[in-house]
Every structure is written in structure tokens, then in C-alpha cells.
Design brief:
Elements: H1 7-23, E1 26-34, E2 43-51, E3 54-60, E4 71-74, E5 79-82, E6 84-86, H2 98-102, H3 108-124, E7 127-132, H4 139-149, E8 156-159, H5 181-194, E9 199-203, H6 222-234, E10 238-243, H7 246-255, E11 259-262, H8 268-277, E12 280-282, H9 293-298, H10 303-326, E13 341-342, E14 345-346, H11 347-357, H12 362-368, H13 371-377, E15 394-397, E16 411-416, E17 419-423
Parallel strand pairs: 1-4, 1-5, 6-7, 7-8, 9-10, 10-11, 11-12
Antiparallel strand pairs: 1-2, 2-3, 5-15, 13-14, 15-16, 16-17
The protein binds zinc ion.
Zinc ion binds next to loops.
Amino acid sequence: MSKHLPKAWLLVLAQLFASALALAETRAIVGANVVDIDGGKPLSDAVVLIDDERISAIGKRGEVDIPADAEIVNAEGLWLIPGMMNMHVHLGLILPGKMQAALANESPEALSLRMMVNARGALDAGVTTIRLPGEHAHGDMAVKAAIERGDYVGPRIFSAGEYLAITGGHGSEAGKTFADGPYELIKKARQEISRGASWVKILISGGIATDGGGIAQPLMTPEEINAVVDAAHRFGARVAAHSGSTLATDVAVDAGVDSIEHGYFLDRKILRKMKKQGTWLVPTIVVSQPATEPFFTRIGSPHWYLERRNSTGKEHWKMLQTAIEEGVNIALGTDQLPQEPNDGTNATAREAQYYVEAGMTPLQALRAATIEPARMLGAEADIGSLEVGKYADIVAVSSDPTRDIKALRDIRLVMKGGDVFLNNASK
Ligand SMILES: [Zn+2]
């Protein structure tokens, strides 16, 4: 190879290599307790060494060699957990009410800017990875690219691009046509994948936020669901299905859908089937529970929306309890911005707290916010736990979250890829 390269080019390459080495940074987080998300004893008074973007060593203080030029991040007495992951976020979310009225004529450019600001906010909530199951106008892809280039800071983004709605269904608009039938849906799925979507989002039943069909109604046909799943999987993309319906979910699970979103009315039988098939559930329980009602009042949700939300809440809660009992794979997601103020904390921390209230141990809830989403994304080799070789996506909290999940309410330090974005370590 090299004999085809002119000498000048070799020089340029050598200089590039040298400057890359000079840029590499070493940091050491010192003095914290490292939580073992596999349930083992925490490592106290630890050193976590970070070379550039990844963790290079974890051990007791005194047992890890800290290079002389390493930047020391003091986290004395704090508890380190993996950066959290929120698997159901819409950066451009608009909910019915005052917000919808205020943003009625939002241009795609203005939407992209709002999405960028919302992405940055996720980091402050300790969320270093998000999955976007359905946005508009592809601002998500622009934000993702800007973050990956390093032009802007925000969480790691896995996106489904625009969601696939059917005419008259959830997410559609009265009188307008959307993708219908296997061929149109396959085409739309491929378009999103070609723009960089690693997930495809289908809306297979009704939902809370629109009047497009009842929540329990299986609106998308088995032929349509099967076609999308087959087309997506051929490209290595995964499929998320918005579903509150047992009937629709039954078809989706058979078709090989990777995750069921919300799952409002799912019964024990279908949850058992999901457990057997390894289908993921992303509960988004904050959207329907009493403790988070002030959020909806604050954004001026109309009466019909609050009614629909409250009437769904009891079934949704029972479903979550049953899913936990049955051991269904659960990955945390909120359907609100990760950082959205809720019940004295943010949506992500409150969602995890709800999981414990519904029957998970604190450790299970912490896993649902870290390693489980990483597994759902197929990214567990890079993120989801604090291990040598993985990205240094690290959050520090002030107490042990495996004893009390409310520890997630007090985020002290947020690091993503070795860079510190929030540091209240000595608060
Ligand atoms: Zn959603």
C-alpha cells in the first residue's frame, strides 16, 4: 500500500498520528465507590482510569498506577454508576395543550435547534445514551451527526428517524394519507434506514396522545407488521412498536418485533410470550401515573388528554407489575425528555423509582436504566457498565442506588466518553 503513497503524504499521516497522540487525555476518578451492577460488593475508595474516551483500569486506590500527567477528578465518598440510558425520548416532543399552540408553526430549522438544546439537557440528568423512537423532519439525524463530530455536546443517540404511522392511526392527521400496506411501509422503513436510522418505529395500536384509534385496537395488519420487521432486520435495523394492545402485541411478537413501547393494556399471557421470545418492554410509566400529573397540568394539557391518561394509568400500572413478576426484559424509557422536571426530580429518575414501587429491586431498576438498554440496543460491548474497554460514560450519585433507588435524584458528576459535563462532586 505505502509504496503507492507519495512521500509528502506519509509525512502528513505521521503528523496526524502524532497530533492524535498528543490529544489523547488521561483522567482518573478517585475516591468513589464503584457500584457492581451484577450485584457484587461495591469497590470502595476506587480509582477509575480513563484513557481518551474509554476506561483503561478500575481498582483500589494504590493498586492502579495513575500517570503523572493524568487529570484527577475527585469523587470522594460518591457512588459511581454507568451513564444512564433512556430508551424512549422524543427530542422534538410536542404534547397537546399550551405547548402545541405555542409551537403550531414551528419550522424544521427551529425544531432542530429545540432538539439540540433538549439533547444537551439529557446529560445533566445523568443520561448519556438515548433512543429516539420517532421524530419529525430528521432534525434528530442532524443533532446526532453534530454530537458525533464533536461540534456540539449531548448523549449518544440511536434513532428511528421518522415513525411509520398508517392513515387514520395513532400519530396520523385527520384527512392526510400515511404509509399503508406492506409496500409503502417497507419503502418508508428503507428511507429512514438510508438516513441513518438504526431502529424503525411502527405505531400498531392507538395511544393516549391522539384520537387515532383506541389504545386496545390492533390497527396495523399482520401483513404490514411482518413486512416492516422483515425489511428492517435485513438491514440490521431493529424494530420498536408502539402498542397498548394485547392483540396487536401478539402479532408483533410473532413477527419478531424487538421492543414493545408503553404496553398499556397487555395481559399476563402476552407478557409471558414476550418473556419467552425475549421481546423488550419499554414501559414509559411516568406518562400515566399520579405523581407525574403536575407535569401535564403545567404544560396545559387539555381535559380530554388528562382523562385519557388517568383512565389508562391503572391498567398500565397493573401491566408493569405483571411484567416485573414474569421477568420480562425491561429497558427504561419515559416518553418525556430525560431531564423533564417531575415530582421533585426528573423523568428518568422518577421512572426508575416507579419500577421499584412496582416490584423491582433497586438493583434491577438500576440495570433497567443501564446495562439492559445497552443489551436492547446491541451496544453492550461499548456501554452499559463500568468495565475496562468500554466508553467512560460515568455518573456519580451521593448514595448507594442499589440500597435506595432515590439516589438517582442526586446526580453529582456526569462524564460521557471521558469528558466531564457536570461536576458537583463537592456539593
Ligand atoms: Zn413516544
